[in-house]
């Protein structure tokens, strides 16, 4: 069976705002299959001016708080970039990609399926490092 990658309809360059970008990241995250015990919050980090585009950087921080440990020992961050081209028409959709904390691999929402295991691996590695 072929797995369908879920994506959303991204806004166009001329309709983009920092707030709209954050809303759309939240909309994308709502399509991800993660257990309800995972909680997250998102924030805008910075705007980056490049020669042919403008990039907007965001961070989404994930954790699993529990009754016994409401403050988790470790968190996992996913970093998003929304890029608006200066060479394409303003009516073109923005480009979106994300990376996981401590990883170099760049993911595009339309080309990969996010997996909860990535978050678990980051947190497990941090806890192992703290215990050493």
TrEMBL record:
Tree of life domain: Eukaryota
Any coiled-coil regions, as ranges: none
Signal peptide: none
Record's keyword terms, sorted: Kinase, Transferase
Any Pfam family matching the protein: AKAP28
InterPro entries per UniProt: AKAP, AKAP_28
Protein name (record): A-kinase anchor protein 14
